[in-house]
C-alpha cells in the first residue's frame, strides 16, 4: 500500500465549497447588516409614554441579515416590551398608522416573540396584535413571514 | 352554464395544471396532472374529448399551442419535451433533445414560433430550435447564473429576450438569440448587445417566482412570487429596478398583461385580481368574481344530497361551496379574445377542474 494512503485528511475537505455552481443561500442579501433597534431611544420614548414613537423606533433596522441569534432575540424582546406596554384598546389605531414595510416587520417580531416569550399575559396581547395586523395587512403578511428567508 | 355571468366548464378530468387554446379557440389542450394531454373540441354546446396524447410517462407540466403553425409543445416531469404536429387526423409527437437531468417545468413558443424555451429543475433553460439538416429539434442551454429550479418563462415580443423566474428568489431577463434561426436583434430598452445567454437584468423577490410576463410592448415586466407580492420592472424608466407591491392576498401563481397598463393575477386566492400601472408601481384595482348573490342558492333536493355524497364525501346536505367561482387554486391564465395589447376575454384553469372564461367587456357584473 502506498504510504500516503494513511493520510485521510483529504476526506475532511468540503468539496462542495470548491464547486463554482454550488448554491449558498447565506450569501444572499449582503446589504446593510441591520444591527437591531436602538435600545436607548426606545426606552427613553417609553419612559415619556410616547408609545407610538417607541414602536416606530423599535421597528427600525431589524437584525434580519445577521447570523447572531442573540442579537435577534434581544431585538425581539425589546419590541415585545413595547407591544406589551400597550393597552388592548389602542392597538387597532396604532396598526392603522403603520406602513406596509413596518407591518411586515412587526408581524415577524410578533411571531418570534410568541416563540420565545414564556409569559401568558404577553401572549394574549400578542394574539391581539396579530389579529389587528391580519385585519389591516391580510393573509399576505403571514405568507411573507413564512416565505421570507431573512428571518428573526 | 348560462345562468352565471362567467362561463365555466368542468371538464371532468380532475385538477387541471395547464391549458392551451388553438388559434380560433374551438379546441383546448388540457393536462390533468397526469401523463396524458387531452384535446377538447367545442361541439354542439359541449366540450368533447377528441384526442388523448399519451406519449409522456410522468405528469405533464407545461403546454403551449402555436396558433399559426398549429403545433403543440408539451413538457413533463419525465425530463422530455415533445412537439406535436397534426397530420391526417392524428397528433404526431417529435422528441426534442432538451438535455435535462431533472423534470421540465414550463414551456413556451417564441412569438415567431420558430423556437421555444423549456425550463427545468436542473437549474437551466433550454432554447430549442429546428435543425433542418438533421430533421431534429435541438437545444442550446442558458445555465448561469440560475441557481435553482426554473418555475416560469416568458418571451419578449421581439422573439429574442426571455424572462426567467426561479426558485432562487430571482427574476432574470436573458437573451435567447439563436444565430441559426434569428435575425440580428435591434437595440431596445433592455440593452443593445444580445449574444446568446447574455444576462440583461436581474431582480429580487422574497419568495419563489411563480410567473413572469412581458407587457405587450415588451418594455415592462411583471412577476408574482410566493410572498404574496406582484412586482413591476419598467425598462423605459430604469431596467435595473423593480417596484414591488405587497398585497393582502394569498400568493399569486399566474400573471398576465391585459393592456400595456393593466395586469390580471390569480392564484391561491381563487379569484383573479386586476392591477394597473400607476406612477412607478402597481395599484390594486378590484377582485373579479361572480357576485355572491348571483350564485345559485343551494337547492334542497335529493340530487343535491347525492352530489354532496359523491363530491365531498359528506353524508348530509351541507353547503361547502365557496363564494368564489373557482373552488380551488387557479393554476394558469390564458388570453382568449382580443389583441395582445387589448385582451377582451381570458380563461383560467384550476385545481378544482374548472376552466372559466372571463369577459372583461361586461365586467360590471363580476366585480366584487
TrEMBL record, chain A:
Superkingdom of this protein's organism: Eukaryota
Residue ranges of the region described as Disordered: 1-39
Biased composition (Acidic residues): 16-30
Alphabetical list of InterPro entries matching this protein: ARPC5, ARPC5_sf
UniProt keyword Cell division present: no
Any Pfam family matching the protein: P16-Arc
Signal peptide (residue range): none
GO cellular component labels: Arp2/3 protein complex
Biological-process GO terms, alphabetical: Arp2/3 complex-mediated actin nucleation; regulation of actin filament polymerization
Location in or out of the cell: Cytoplasm, Cytoskeleton
UniProtKB keywords: Cytoplasm, Cytoskeleton
Function: Functions as component of the Arp2/3 complex which is involved in regulation of actin polymerization and together with an activating nucleation-promoting factor (NPF) mediates the formation of branched actin networks. Arp2/3 complex plays a critical role in the control of cell morphogenesis via the modulation of cell polarity development. Functions as a component of the Arp2/3 complex which is involved in regulation of actin polymerization and together with an activating nucleation-promoting factor (NPF) mediates the formation of branched actin networks.
Family that this chain belongs to: Belongs to the ARPC5 family.
Name assigned to this protein: Actin-related protein 2/3 complex subunit 5
Organism: Diploscapter pachys
TrEMBL record, chain B:
Family: Belongs to the WD repeat ARPC1 family.
GO BP terms: Arp2/3 complex-mediated actin nucleation
Gene3D superfamilies hit by this protein: YVTN repeat-like/Quinoprotein amine dehydrogenase
Keywords, ordered alphabetically: Actin-binding, Cytoplasm, Cytoskeleton, Repeat, WD repeat
Source organism: Diploscapter pachys
WD repeats: 53-84
Origin organism lineage: Eukaryota, Metazoa, Ecdysozoa, Nematoda, Chromadorea
Location relative to the cell: Cytoplasm, Cytoskeleton
Gene Ontology cellular component annotations, sorted alphabetically: Arp2/3 protein complex
Pfam families: WD40 (PF00400)
A molecular function (GO) term: actin filament binding
Function statement: Functions as component of the Arp2/3 complex which is involved in regulation of actin polymerization and together with an activating nucleation-promoting factor (NPF) mediates the formation of branched actin networks.
Protein name as catalogued: Actin-related protein 2/3 complex subunit
Domain of life according to the entry: Eukaryota
Amino acid at each position: 500500500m502506498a504510504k500516503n494512503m494513511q493520510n485521510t485528511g483529504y476526506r475532511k475537505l468540503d468539496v462542495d465549497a470548491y464547486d463554482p455552481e454550488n448554491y449558498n443561500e447565506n450569501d444572499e442579501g449582503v446589504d446593510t447588516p441591520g444591527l437591531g433597534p436602538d435600545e436607548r431611544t426606545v426606552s427613553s420614548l417609553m419612559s415619556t409614554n410616547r408609545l407610538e414613537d417607541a414602536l416606530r423606533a423599535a421597528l427600525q433596522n431589524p437584525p434580519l441579515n445577521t447570523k447572531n441569534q442573540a442579537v435577534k432575540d434581544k431585538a425581539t424582546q425589546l419590541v415585545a416590551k413595547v407591544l406589551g406596554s400597550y393597552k388592548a384598546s389602542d392597538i387597532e389605531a396604532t396598526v392603522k398608522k403603520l406602513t406596509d414595510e413596518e407591518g411586515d416587520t412587526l408581524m415577524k417580531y410578533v411571531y418570534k416573540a410568541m416563540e420565545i416569550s414564556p409569559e401568558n399575559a404577553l401572549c394574549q396581547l400578542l394574539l391581539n396584535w396579530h389579529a389587528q395586523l391580519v385585519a389591516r395587512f391580510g393573509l399576505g403578511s403571514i405568507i411573507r413571514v413564512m416565505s421570507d428567508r431573512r428571518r428573526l | 352554464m348560462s345562468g352565471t355571468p362567467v362561463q365555466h366548464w368542468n371538464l371532468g378530468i380532475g385538477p387541471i395544471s395547464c391549458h392551451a387554446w388553438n388559434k380560433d379557440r374551438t379546441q383546448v389542450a388540457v393536462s390533468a396532472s397526469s401523463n396524458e394531454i387531452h384535446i377538447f373540441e367545442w361541439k354542439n354546446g359541449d366540450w368533447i374529448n377528441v384526442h388523448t396524447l399519451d406519449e409522456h410517462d410522468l405528469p405533464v407540466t407545461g403546454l403551449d399551442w402555436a396558433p399559426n403553425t398549429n403545433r403543440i409543445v408539451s413538457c413533463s416531469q419525465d425530463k422530455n419535451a415533445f412537439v406535436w404536429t397534426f397530420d391526417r387526423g392524428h397528433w404526431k409527437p417529435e422528441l426534442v433533445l432538451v438535455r435535462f437531468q431533472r423534470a421540465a417545468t414550463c414551456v413556451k413558443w417564441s412569438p415567431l414560433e420558430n423556437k421555444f424555451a423549456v425550463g427545468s429543475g436542473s437549474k437551466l433553460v433550454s432554447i430549442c430550435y429546428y435543425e433542418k439538416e438533421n430533421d431534429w429539434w435541438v437545444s442550446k442551454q442558458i445555465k448561469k447564473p440560475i441557481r435553482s429550479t426554473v418555475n416560469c418563462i416568458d418571451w419578449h415580443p421581439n422573439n429574442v429576450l426571455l424572462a426567467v423566474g426561479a426558485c432562487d428568489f430571482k427574476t432574470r431577463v436573458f437573451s435567447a438569440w439563436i444565430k441559426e434561426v434569428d435575425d440580428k436583434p435591434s437595440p431596445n430598452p433592455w440593452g443593445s448587445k444580445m449574444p446568446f445567454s447574455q444576462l440583461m437584468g436581474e431582480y429580487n423577490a422574497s419568495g419563489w417566482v411563480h410567473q413572469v410576463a412581458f407587457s405587450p410592448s415588451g418594455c415592462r415586466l411583471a412577476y408574482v412570487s410566493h410572498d404574496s407580492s406582484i412586482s413591476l420592472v419598467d425598462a423605459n424608466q430604469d431596467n435595473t429596478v423593480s417596484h414591488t407591491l405587497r398585497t393582502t392576498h394569498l400568493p399569486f401563481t399566474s400573471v398576465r398583461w391585459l393592456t400595456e397598463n393593466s395586469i390580471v393575477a390569480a392564484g391561491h386566492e381563487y379569484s383573479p385580481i386586476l392591477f394597473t400601472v400607476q406612477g412607478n408601481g402597481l395599484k390594486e384595482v378590484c377582485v373579479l368574481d361572480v357576485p355572491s348573490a348571483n350564485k345559485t342558492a343551494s337547492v334542497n333536493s335529493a340530487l343535491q344530497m347525492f352530489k354532496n355524497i359523491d363530491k365531498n364525501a359528506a353524508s348530509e346536505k351541507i353547503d361547502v361551496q365557496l363564494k368564489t367561482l373557482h373552488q380551488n387554486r387557479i393554476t394558469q391564465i390564458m388570453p382568449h379574445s382580443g389583441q395582445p395589447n387589448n385582451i377582451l376575454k381570458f380563461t383560467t384553469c384550476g385545481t378544482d377542474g374548472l376552466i372559466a372564461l372571463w369577459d372583461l367587456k361586461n365586467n360590471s357584473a363580476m366585480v366584487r
